[in-house]
Amino acid sequence: MSDKRDYYEVLGVERDADARTIKRAFLKKAREVHPDVSDDPDAEMKFKEVNEAYSVLSDEQKRANYDRFGTADGMGGSGYVDFSDIFGGMGMDDIFSSFFGGGAAGGHAGRQQRRQGRDMAISLSVTLEEAAQGCTKTISYDRLAPCEDCHGTGLAEGAKEEPCKRCHGTGYVTQVQRSIFGQVQSSAPCPDCHGEGTVIDHPCDMCDGQGRTPTHEKLDIKVPAGISSGRQLRVSGYGEAGYRGAPAGDLIVSVEVERHDRFERHGDDLYLDLSVSMVQAALGCTVEVDGIMPDERVSMHVPAGSQPGALVTVEGRGMPRIGGGGARGRLVARVKVVVPTELSAEARQALERYEEAVGEDFERKRSVGDRIRDAIDDILD
Ligand SMILES: [Zn+2]
Ligand SMILES: [Zn+2]
Prior knowledge:
Helix Hairpins, HSP40/DNAj peptide-binding domain, binds zinc ion
């Protein structure tokens, strides 16, 4: 891949070509070499080449890098991210298949289904902090968007759209076939208007009369506070654009909340482990922990005599309830009692005095204490 062709040469544009010229040239070239329409045995490779050239030249940053360094990611830098992979959205190849292969135009689908753009689905990952506060995330994905040149009409300037003469505007034609059962009538999409019912005398040359073009879309998604994994946000009209200005589909964003290294989420409640010393557990203590919100500190009161695994709950410091007007779930700490593994001479004496003070009543527990002490002795020896 070292002797790659120059991207400008691939698309057949000047080095100072503007964005529209580049897009136009790209669509023209892509239509020529797309494997669905081209007989050229190298069509697939050529299509990839055209696609790659466009993905670089259509992105300001990548194009600037390419102009300066000859590569899209600059001086062997970190490389650019292909969001269509990350978000699991439709790739450019799928977009093109529906653009050229008429994927949206199913055989019997009829006019309605053919015209309307399809819904698209992508996934979006947010951190637990982002889910707690709500956030705006910029996503980018590929879709068929309304054509900028003809505003989705598919018409070149001054062109007209008229009822198709062959099918009289119905969009389909009736075929009569003879069979052993006699004559069979069937209807098929009209070959003149491709089921549209109308024909245009001069189609827009940017979109080839479709009213939509493959576009790399950037979109801000508002993620509400309290969102949880599996929730879907619907962005109306940002799915696939409709054929010749028909309604677009929606973009459905599936939100995935990442795991957190400190908090475990159960519904609107947040759980965390709280380590206290055995003395703190015995005497009770108040521990301040970081909450999920920025700069939030939460006091957790561990009552005297808390056993390992005891739960300490603070109301209203968990995750916000989605649409709950600021209401929040609980923050729950699981008490972990830390038994010291190394003791200074002083600490050891203190524990021995403690054991004496506890006295005969705790004989049964003493034997446990003895065993712990023996174990500690073993470590110290
Ligand atoms: Zn027709
Ligand atoms: Zn157009």
